[in-house]
Amino acid sequence: MQHPENDEAYKGLTVNKGIDQPTTVNPYLKLRKKTKRRQFTVDEYVDGIVKGDVTVLSQAVTLVESLRPEHQALAQEVIEKCLPYSGNSLRVGISGVPGAGKSTSIDAFGLHVLSEYGGKLAVLAIDPSSERSKGSILGDKTRMEKLSVHPDAFIRPSPAAGSLGGVARKTRETIILCEAAGFDKIFVETVGVGQSETAVHSMVDFFLLIQLAGTGDELQGIKRGIMEMADGIVINKADGNNIEKAKLAASHFRNALHLFPAPESGWTPQVLTYSGFYNLGIKEIWDMVYKYVDFVKTNGYFNYRRNEQAKYWMYETINEHLRDSFYNNPVISSLIPGTEQEVLGGRTTSFTAARKLLDTYFKECLIAQKE
Ligand code: GDP
User: Fold this and answer.
1) How far is the CA of 104 from the centre of ligand 1 (A)?
2) Residues ≥6 apart with Cβ < 8 Å to 163
3) Which EC number(s) does UniProt give (predicted)?
4) Mean pLDDT across the stretch 175-193?
5) 156 and 60 Cβ atoms separated by less than 8 Å
6) How confident is residue 134, by pLDDT bands cut at 50, 70 and 90?
7) To test ligand 1's pocket by mutation, which of 140, 148, 277 has the most ligand atoms within 8 angstroms of CB?
8) Model confidence over 136-183: pLDDT tens digits?
9) Which atom of ligand 1 lies at the shortest distance from residue 275's CA?
């Protein structure tokens, strides 16, 4: 049979004359006055946020995410002033591997809690691995179709890629701003593949782990540490002919949980099955979450955990700043490659090398102080 590309009539390789392309520059742009958006003052930010103005809130979050020192300083002042208005919310961490159905579920969860309990919901995310930042991965609006157009929902993707500590801190600060803006329900989403769970766990009241029924060996795939953090494990996609498998997986998880030491909260983690896509079992999940909240508010664990988290974040922030200050010090960063080679070549021990660098750093700090 003749290949179509060998036919005389085939035009695939002929170049058409083409038409003039319009300029890619908007011709009306010149007509617009060059007005740079005026930077709000701290009080303007705080007023706007406390009034629940989502535009101001978004801009304040952008400030929190900015790497520029002057933005950082402004952001810290805004956060500080918002602090008295914050704290009055339910913070839920939602984790699961890619494909577990987080976006689908958050859409369904969000609609459920808003219709059942009222209030306002903010969905934030922590995804330090994401180079595809700027809204294209977690928290992406198109992935939460219904929630993204809900008037009482605010969806914000993960801050751009960076160190986990940095990304997590920004999300935690964003929680404070959202709460001050009247968001009384906060979901923090994360990809269930590693360290980011610990970060999320350290800023939420309830940690929900989304799992899938698999081949029966699903328990091997998830790290013990992550399971231990969960206050609830929910098996998604319990629909169609997957229902029995999901139930079986649930009983495996229940058995596995028995092997762990009892959680500090005194709460026994629950395992449920549901379908985010078909909206089945969603109510039961949120009944569980609210039952947990009642339970830990009564026994005092709720406040205890929040205090512990505040303490944790103080130390995390100190550690992060010390590390940054050390590694960004020009003298240190110029010494590091050579020192590393000395350690690799066995000419010095790791300990001595570290000591030397630290001593140099402290001396540098003293010099900087005197100047
Ligand atoms: P994420 O990567 O964890 O955010 O997962 P998504 O929400 O994007 O879902 C991944 C895939 O699973 C999509 O094709 C969804 O349509 C599908 N999915 C999500 N929830 C369910 C469910 O409850 N049942 C079924 N059958 N499919 C689902």
Assistant:
1) 6
2) 128, 320
3) 3.6.5.-
4) 91
5) no
6) very low
7) 277
8) 445 455 678 899 899 999 998 877 767 777 788 889 999 999 999 999
9) 23
Domain boundaries, the chain: 86-299, 329-370
DSSP 90: E
Return the best residue to mutate from 102, 104, 144 for the ligand 1 pocket (most ligand atoms within 8 A of CB).
104
* Ligand 1 center from residue 102 Cα (angstroms): 7
Residue with CA nearest ligand 1 atom 9 = 101
Q: Identify the residue whose tokens are 């751009």.
A: 160
Give, using CA atoms, the residue closest to atom 18 of ligand 1. Answer: 101
The whole-number average pLDDT for the span 29-40 is 66
Distance 272 CA to ligand 1 centre (A): 17
Look at residue 1 and tell me whether its pLDDT is greater than 80. Answer: no
- How many angstroms is it from 54 CA to the middle of ligand 1? 29
Question: What is the CATH number that goes with domain 86-299?
Answer: 3.40.50.300
Instruction: Tell me which of 41-45, 187-191, 236-240, 304-308 is least confident.
Output: 187-191
Q: How far is it, in rounded angstroms, from Cα 12 to Cα 35? A: 49
pTM (predicted TM-score): 0.82
In angstroms, rounded to a whole number, what is the distance separating the alpha carbons of residues 179 and 159? 18
Does position 36 have pLDDT exceeding 80, yes or no?
Answer: no
105: CA distance to ligand 1 center in Å? Answer: 8
Q: Ligand 1 centre and the CA of 205: distance in Å?
A: 25
Greater model confidence, 319 or 138: 319
